[in-house]
Design a protein that fits this description.
37% helix, golgi apparatus, Rossmann fold, glycosyltransferase, glycosyltransferase activity, Exostosin_GT47, elongated, alpha/beta, 8 strands
Length: 300
Amino acid sequence: MEKQQCKALYREVLKWVTDQPAWKQSEGRDHILPVHHPWSFKSVRRYLKNAIWLLPDMDSTGNWYKPGQVFLEKDLILPYVPNVELCDAKCMTEIESTRTTILFFRGRLKRNAGGKIRAKLVAELTGAKDVVIEEGSAGEAGKVAAQNGMRKSIFCLSPAGDTPSSARLFDAIVSGCIPVIVSDELELPFEGILDYRKIAIFVSSSDAVQPGWLLNFLKSISRSQISKMQQNLAEYSRHFIYSSPAQPLGPEDLVWRMMAGKLVNIKLHTRRSQRVVKESRSICTCDCRRSNSTSSTFML
């Protein structure tokens, strides 16, 4: 579809949605919109910003979303659909002895915006012993190569892409490969319910690019700690596998559990908007737009 056709369609949808009595009653605050691509609804977002957005990412750099459009109190982060097959607890036990690669990455080696960290990591890690860094490829062959690489590795590098998040993180989780997240602005799905410190290692960009630092850090993690995190990965995988019908504690279920926690705030702002007079200067601006503060730690 041509760009102008898309914009015309967005305007048509916008008019229909905002003309509905239900939208007018709350100014959209109790509506849910899937905005699961950085370009979705871009030309009409300013008219829909009161609604709850289902997002793949919450880019705080301003490259994709303007200030005030997205924030944690209002919106929800959803996981990407994994591109590889699930390696369940039985699978992980069977392949445990074959995980001989310390750190694995397969994907685009050069990206824009926050993803520029990739080029620095590639320069630092390429050629290191027991480390595999590969340019990714699309299609079935690329999927198989990524899946095989992750299942043979203890840690999987998950750096920022063009946005802070990447589908690679969820591929690593369902493969039983401990994610090493190098993305200082990353927000994660269902973090009010899930503790990612049990399944992933968070490393600041400044630490990750120091000569020799990252591999020394990973090698310092004990075998027992690695085993515990792998067990946690086997338990956490179900939270990222979409299914029909939806399963208890699957991503669809967790969306509604997270949504339930927003109801009081939705009612507060809806009722407040209905009674505050136009001349009032008492404007609530309780947006949460602070970026993550990432340190190089892990917790079990």
